[in-house]
Design goal:
The chain has a single domain, classed as Rossmann fold, CATH 3.40.50. The chain has 209 residues and is an alpha/beta fold. The protein is 43% helix and 20% strand. The radius of gyration is 17 Å and the shape is globular.
Length: 209
């Protein structure tokens, strides 16, 4: 089994890279998104939710993420939490059933800020992108998928996304084995990543880990 981390700033193009890997490796790959492991904030008021810092490492339940990754690494299926950006809480009745696979992708902005999680990974990838490009993608995504308006997206970007990127996410690039510049559209870098994964998969000792 090969465990691959894919990190990078919000709006950097991580999802594009993940989709490309899924296209190539199909049912040999499963994705565990960091976003599913946000701590449950459904008990907070709407005002408190609006100002909560989702870009700080403390917002992630790393204990659960590491535990479930360890389970799946040992051949056990897991029940991945379902998190709603609308309610800022986990579903009480719904989970995602995840079976082990040859390739496990752990994807998220803060995954390299947890040493225990980093140590569980075989390959660490960082997807890089210019700040202006990231902001434009964040605006499109948050308005279309998370029910935000333009003003709230810009305010959150200035108040938490940008400063947290500078403090926690960008520095985590030093842990990466492979850096994909220019977001998810750098086909040369993605092809290098694909070749690296193929080589690791052909080495049977990886799949026995």
């Amino acid at each position: 089994m090969l465990i691959i981390g894919i990190a990078g700033g919000s709006g950097s193009g991580k999802s594009t890279v993940v989709r490309r890997l899924q296209e190539v490796f199909k049912d040999r790959i499963v994705v565990i998104p960091q976003d599913s492991y946000y701590k449950d904030l459904s008990y907070l008021s709407e005002e408190e939710k609006e100002v909560y810092n989702f870009d700080h490492p403390n917002s992630i339940d790393f204990d659960l993420l590491c535990h479930q990754l360890e389970q799946i690494k040992h051949g056990q299926a897991i029940e991945q939490p379902v998190y709603s950006y609308i309610t800022c809480g986990r579903s009480k009745t719904e989970t995602v059933h995840v079976e082990p696979a040859d390739i496990i992708i752990v994807e998220g902005i803060l995954i390299y800020n947890c040493q225990k999680l980093r140590r569980q990974m075989d390959i660490k990838v960082y997807v890089d992108a210019d700040d202006d490009d990231r902001l434009s993608r964040i605006m499109v995504r948050d308005i279309a998928e998370r029910g935000k308006d333009v003003n709230s997206v810009i305010q959150r970007y200035n108040d938490s996304v940008k400063p947290m990127h500078l403090q926690f996410i960008a520095p985590s690039k030093r842990y990466a084995d492979i850096i994909v510049p220019q977001g998810g559209h750098n086909h040369v870098a993605i092809n290098i990543l694909l070749a690296t994964i193929e080589k690791a998969l052909n080495d049977k000792t990886w799949l026995k880990k």
